[in-house]
Design a protein that fits this description.
single chain, alpha/beta, 2 domains, two-stranded antiparallel ribbon, 9 helices
């Protein structure tokens, strides 16, 4: 099931990278939101925006998947951000539970085999259910890291790649269903985009946000290539990247604002002082409601007071 180690490199089209780096809440770029890179100098501190020139050329290898980080780097991130990534076998078990609830039966996409799984290679049988409703169903991965619950191009712990037929992410499952139930490229693209619009995730650290966005975008490319034996046109990839930049965003998951964006210089932020999540003076995060094509504050989707 597993093959070579996967190493993501930011060597894609510069315009595409700018899309993936854009923060739709601030209308700037995502920020580092960590001091892990401050040794590189100006432009790498906590509040600095991540720009294309900081991740290409001589800096092309500084952002890397967790599996490629040193033990010291991993321990620092665990200590500072409680960052511990879930292995794919465990993501699969939990995703299977979500699908068991949706389908009303077990082992739809695969069956668990100790700390691995055995894939069901037969076309998914929806019986009296509608495959389109499955593709449209909304999924959110909180504190998403490199989004191992949504896509599984590689195991986030071992770094080993996973063949497309054996992937277990929630979007992987949706795209598999799209491929099994569409007959032409136009329909496939339509429903693949619907699938991508249905999955969301957020994280505090900017490098994780970028890696997650890349993983989501590359997953679309992987499945397109697997289905049609060719690469998608760049304009299509950029369209998908725009969607990805909305659906994977940078956020403090407790305050619902851009990390450390609250101002406490003249007087303390009321939200920070009193724990009122709708009273922060920081930049509240916005996402796209794709049903209405309207930008909405993430807080409007919650029942918190």
């Amino acid at each position: 099931m597993f093959s070579e180690l996967v190493d993501i490199k930011e060597d894609i089209d510069a315009e595409l990278l700018n899309i993936l780096l854009h923060d739709n809440s601030s209308n700037k770029n995502i920020i580092w939101a960590t001091d892990n890179y401050k040794e590189y100098g100006i432009g790498f501190d906590f509040f600095a925006e991540i720009t294309v020139d900081k991740i290409i050329g001589k800096y092309k290898d500084i952002i890397k998947p967790r599996s490629k980080k040193t033990k010291k780097e991993k321990n620092t991130r665990i200590k500072n951000n409680a960052e511990v990534f879930t292995p794919s076998w465990l993501c699969n078990e939990q995703n299977n539970l979500a699908d068991e609830a949706w389908f009303g039966r077990k082992n739809v996409f695969n069956r668990i085999d100790k700390k691995s799984w055995i894939t069901n290679y037969q076309k998914i049988d929806f019986k009296d259910l509608d495959w389109k409703e499955y593709v449209k169903s909304t999924r959110l991965e909180i504190s998403c890291g490199e989004i191992p619950y949504l896509v599984s191009r590689y195991d986030t712990v071992t770094g080993k790649s996973i063949k497309i037929e054996d992937r277990i992410g929630l979007l992987d499952r949706k795209l598999r269903v799209v491929s099994e139930n569409t007959k032409n490229e136009e329909d496939w693209i339509q429903w693949a985009i619907i699938a991508i619009k249905s999955v969301y995730g957020f994280d505090w650290q900017g490098d994780n946000v970028l890696l997650a966005r890349e993983n989501l975008l590359y997953t679309f490319i992987d499945y397109y290539n697997h289905k049609f034996n060719k690469k998608p046109e760049l304009d299509l990839v950029k369209t998908v990247a725009q969607i990805v930049s909305w659906n994977i965003w940078q956020m403090d998951g407790i305050k619902y604002v851009i990390p450390n964006s609250c101002k406490n210089d003249k007087c303390q932020c009321e939200g920070c002082k009193n724990g009122k999540n709708k009273k922060h003076n920081g930049i509240y995060c916005r996402i796209m409601n794709w049903n209405t094509n309207r930008k909405v504050k993430f807080t409007t989707l919650l029942n918190k007071k």
